[in-house]
Specification:
With 439 residues, this protein is α+β, with helices and mostly antiparallel strands. It has 3 domains: 120 residues, no CATH class; 134 residues, Jelly Rolls; 158 residues, Jelly Rolls, CATH 2.60.120. It has 10 helices and 24 strands. The strands form 5 sheets. Strands 1, 5, 8, 9, 12, 13, 16, 17, 20, 21 and 24 form an 11-stranded mixed β-sheet that branches. A hairpin with a 5-residue loop joins strand 18 and strand 19. Helix 4 crosses helix 7 and helix 6 packs antiparallel against helix 7. The chain is globular and about 60 Å long. The two termini are 19 Å apart.
Amino acid sequence: MLNRRSLFGITTMASFAALSPAADLGARTITFSKDVAPILQEKCQVCHREGSMAPMSLMTYEQTRPWAKAIRQRVITRQMPPWHLDKTVGVQKFKNDISLSDDQIATIVQWVDAGAPQGDPKDMPAPKQWPRDDEWQAAKELGQPDLVVKADPYTMPARHQDVWWRPEATIPINEPRWVRAVEVRPTNPSARKIVHHAVAYLVQNDGDAPSAAANDADRQGVLMEWAIGKSYDFYRPDTGKLLLPGSKISWDIHIHAAGEELVAGVELGVWLYKKGQDPKYRTHLTAFPGKTGPNLDIPPNSLVESQGFTVLKQAAILENIQPHMHLRGKAMSLEAILPDGTSQMVSYVGNFNFNWMTNYIYDDDAAPVLPKGTVIKVTTWHDNTKDNPFNPDPDQWVGFGHRTVDEMAHAWVNVTYISDEDYSAWAAKHKKTVAVNAR
């Protein structure tokens, strides 16, 4: 059972204390050029570089040195890089893991504690070539997208209430096509300043999608949801999403003012399977709800735990988890309650940060495989107290709503539905992990 101690991250500092960085790394001098720069290049510079979203660049020693103490604090508390998932429970193998290892954290801490020495500049790794913001991130593996669907731009005044911009755009196909990858991105630097998230709903006449629950959690036909920390979805081999002729993208773009008039644009890149290469399995982006709608009740100055339950109407593979809450969101867990009554923690995001809607994508061999009738239990914690640094007003009651000052509670999960026969074959092959493959 998760408790308040784990919820508020007290165990994070305790677990770091056990690293004993000095003992682990020995007495040698840790330098920026030889030891720290490779870590920043691997884990940090994707955001911390000129022209990107971070407020400072960490490409060189001169740029990094003034931030040394702040970097130390952020990595100890695992606030940065933005990987807020508990590393002690549930699935721990991911395709996109950007977290620091214990050894990498210890290296940075020892470097700062020693006075942040530069070392020999000749030890610096060669600069890494990063894709520009106007390049598709998935292109490095798949080439350019087969289709690009743009939303009509929106001009946001310097000061204004939040806006939910909902234009439609037609997908330019005249026959059914299967999707193997999708990427959503803001179209310009201005948009990156004011677009909080963008949902691309797939509007098409399609009665083939299996209902995830009595209220049909995937009835909206979500193709992809973008937010800071998420850029693209690759579907595992022999899986994908189906587009039908006449289908449209119905955009739902959350835009906030930034003190200057800016134009927000968003676009969707789609990579298709070749004609005739139809995948066996179909994937649906599903919003597994916590307690939501009129039932979400967060009184002033309170910590609130709530739960939501969804029954899988068909055997399925869970491909990822992306928690979605707002400013009072603190933590979220996703559990699988099997038909035999046993329960398995799949993932626990114990330090949710509204500024980073991180998507945790499971490795193919670690993704939970669940039988028909499994109950997906989503537990959420909201912190409406003064101890929450993101809370605009702890004296206000908070309920469900689309504004940033309102709240939500659901987990975005790509669900790949499989047949009972497929599940039985998988279970026979994984006799020791039939309940859920979460190791």
